[in-house]
């Protein structure tokens, strides 16, 4: 996909992409509100492991256009050029992992009764 309009420097931090035409009436599995990763993909070997990723949310989706909202404002708007191709892939929030790790770390803290005072 190529960027139609770039409003990444604005307060809304949005990009507008055309929806590509697919064979056999294939429809991408995205919905409004889905969290995604956006990355530059100009070569076949470009993927989320080899390129810088940008966390984003699907702000709006229609048959013709996808509006993506970045979760963090970017200081360097020149990163997002209209000459590059971009890929959008599903992502997930790691809230449950963070909660599990916090619970795990709490189990290693000494109980107040067992603390030794000097």
Number of strands: 6
Top-tier CATH class: Mainly Beta
Strand content: 25-35%
Low-confidence stretches: none
SSE class: mainly beta
CATH architecture label: Beta Barrel
The Rg value, from CA coordinates, equals: 20 Å
- Total domain units: 1
Mean of all residue-level pLDDT scores: 78
**Approximate helicity band:** 10-25%
Order of helices and strands: EEEEEEH
C-alpha termini separation: 64 Å
CATH fold-level label: Elongation Factor Tu (Ef-tu), domain 3
Largest sheet: 6 strands, antiparallel
Helix count from the secondary structure assignment: 1
Shape: elongated
Largest beta sheet: strand ordering: 1-2-5-4-3-6
List key phrases describing it:
118 residues; mainly beta; single chain; 10% helix; Elongation Factor Tu (Ef-tu), domain 3; 6-stranded antiparallel sheet
Report on this model:
The protein has one helix at 95-106; strands at 5-7, 14-18, 35-40, 53-61, 65-70, 86-90. With 118 residues, the protein is mainly β. It has a single domain, classed as Elongation Factor Tu (Ef-tu), domain 3 (Beta Barrel), CATH 2.40.30. The model has no long low-confidence stretch (mean pLDDT 78).
